[in-house]
Amino acid sequence: MCPIVGVVEPIRDAAREAITRAAPLFELVGRQTRLLDALAWSREVEERFFEQGEQALPEPSYEIDRARAQANVIELEQLAMTLDVQDPVQHWLASQCRSYADGNRMILAIGTKRFSEISVDVFGGPRSRFDADTTNLDLARHLEQRILGVEARIREKRRRKKGVLEPREADTLDAPAFAAEIEAMARGIGLAVEVVVDDRVTAKVAAGTERVRVRKGARFHRWELEGLFVHEVETHALTAQNGAACVALPFLKSGGPRTTRHQEGLAVFAEFQAHALPVERMERIVRRVRLVAMAEDGADFLELYRFLVAAGQAPREAYFDAQRICRGGLVEGGAPFTKDSAYLAGFMEVFNFLQVAVRGGAREEVELLACGRISLDDLVVLRTLRRAGLLEKPRRLPRWMQRWHTLVPFFAVSSFLAEIDLESVASRYHALLADEETDALDAARDP
Q1: pTM of this structure
Q2: d(CA 170, CA 179)
Q3: Neighbours of 341 (CB within 10 A)
Q4: How far apart are the C-alpha atoms of 176 and 194, rounded to whole Å?
Q5: Domain segments of the chain as ranges
């Protein structure tokens, strides 16, 4: 049975009127808030850090329009007070009000411990519960052990045995070359996006509605191309464009911070489905959860940076990953930006939803995931709005979603495989795998 099939409630006139009032405010606030841009550290902060020998804590400064952010919070709170939360549609609008207001509250709290407290409330943190007895950090540690630990040791052992070198400069792309390839790939699937090199972007790649920004000075491995394309372009830019095309609900192009967990989860699922989620990428996602936990426990920027360098990251890459955790909070530790702890949990929640929905034949509900930047919690209301004619069918679907006929057997098989006792399989092939296990143990003893 489909998890979200049920009686579709008719939309009341009051709910339609509430949408009419809320939509322009949400769209305006969505354009003005731009939380990640507000948190960005300047290139001068980066250069000063390296000029000082990587010994001093960075001193970022933030330009905040406090009056605008405070006005946004007030207007959103006033709108929320007029909504009847007993009505499902208006309850959803009230959730959107809080989400957009939280984004502005975070901007107002930048550089304080309160910033991190709101961040945990909005995005969750490493110790937030993924399910009844598992935290995000537990999930990260499990994946690190099951996917990364042995694989990393075996890879290192083979590298030293065979003399395999680290990727050469010729095996990587600089920012302009990477941007050109991403733009060509977008044209290849008929998606109109401009890809620009920008020295202000905090992440290596960040997607807006019609523009994808690539960090100036960044270098990219060839294996990153497909993964970053399906993550940033074929998920984030695509859902934003679909949301912008919704006549009655154009604010779906931004969605607000409450949608981040499942939007990032959807993007990681797209990488997984495209076979573009290699060990190196998963290692980085898992490690970021640990970094957030370390910062919560008091690790400052320098401790995070040195941890990453010791783990083998290049200094600039280590700087940017440590920056992701400290931006907006306290570089002295104790108050991180917790967004990076949401990716793994969001991925698992999206995967689990798809497993049940696809098996139940809920194609319309699955396609709702592409109608804008949304949360899984929105699907029941969005289906109601879709059937009432207030939400258009997504203009574009990611390629994995178009291939519905491949999703059905994929999830049918994966649900069965989850019940297999792998210990019995491992014992059957013990002799075959013994050499690999010995190599892994040798590598562990001889790091």
Answers
A1: 0.89
A2: 17
A3: 32
A4: 13
A5: 13-404
